[in-house]
Amino acid sequence: MQAPLVDRFGRLHDNLRISVTDRCNIRCFYCMPEEGGQYAPKQEILSFEEMARFTRVAVGLGVRKLRITGGEPLARKDLHKLIAMLTEIEGIEDIALTTNAVLLGAQAKALYDAGLRRLNVHLDTLDRERFREITRRDELPRVLEGIDIAQSLGFGPIKLNAVAVKGVTEADILPMARFGRERGIEVRFIEFMPLDSQGLWDKTQVLTMDQMLERLRAEFGELDVVPDQDERAPATEFRYRDGKGNIGFIASVSKPFCLNCNRIRLTSDGKLRYCLFAVEEMDVRALLRAGDDAGVAAAIRENLMRKWIGHEIGATQFVPPPRPMYAIGG
Hints:
By secondary structure, the chain is of the alpha/beta class. It has a single domain, classed as Aldolase class I (TIM Barrel, Alpha-Beta Barrel), CATH 3.20.20.70. Helix content is 30%, strand content 17%. Strands 7-8-9-6-5-4-3-2-1-10-11-12 form a twelve-stranded mixed β-sheet. Helix 2 runs parallel beside helix 3. The longest helix is centred in the middle third of the chain and has 14 residues, at 140-153. The chain starts with 14 loop residues before the first strand and ends with a helix. The relative contact order is 0.16.
């Protein structure tokens, strides 16, 4: 029996995030440049078979949960085929997809039929003009249509991830919360993190969890912390006292959850990362293409033993990762 994936600080890792592409069909200012961008050559991108191979090795080491990310994962042709491969791997208990939902309406049925049920939709605003300003694309109608189609097919739970940027999205907090309450969808606000490709991030732009909670309480009344939450989950969840659902916060800047982190990451070009903010990577693409499963397993363990105690955002010694979010995987 394989030893569990435990790092130097005693954290057990059972969650794998796989980025399937570094391409995206929108251009959020806090992630991508307005034009251009550096992308991995096609021949360096892992095939679905290689991603499934890596997953089988990771599952053999104790991984039980998967999240498919990008870039925009639905920009990868025939993504439902990968989902079907992953659902067949014995030992996987949960598969989720993070998407901007621009292409979701057209692909939702194939994804559902392949076995996918859980979705996280990235959506910062319900205002069409502000959506265009944030993403540099006029795609809000397609996003909302994709959510509608996914709900009608039976996807669930569906969660909305909204990046909160001071001076940009304050006006969206209450409308997004109302939208979630009306649709039975949990909205999760994410504090603005230093992962943009243009170096725009500044700590003064972070709209914190406590600041957002103050606005929500003024509108909806007191919110209660959801009891018995998974302490390794990135979001802190609260419950509306009127019973109309939950709301969550990923407070990576103001209240880091690093001490409970259970995630490892595989980039679309075959790099293994122990943290979203890691400044080093391990290349497993050659091992996968050589069919060296033992080498892949050893690389996973070695990478995990290099994992630090936390990212130190806001500290003077913090160094942002050399690759932007779209190249790492959300």
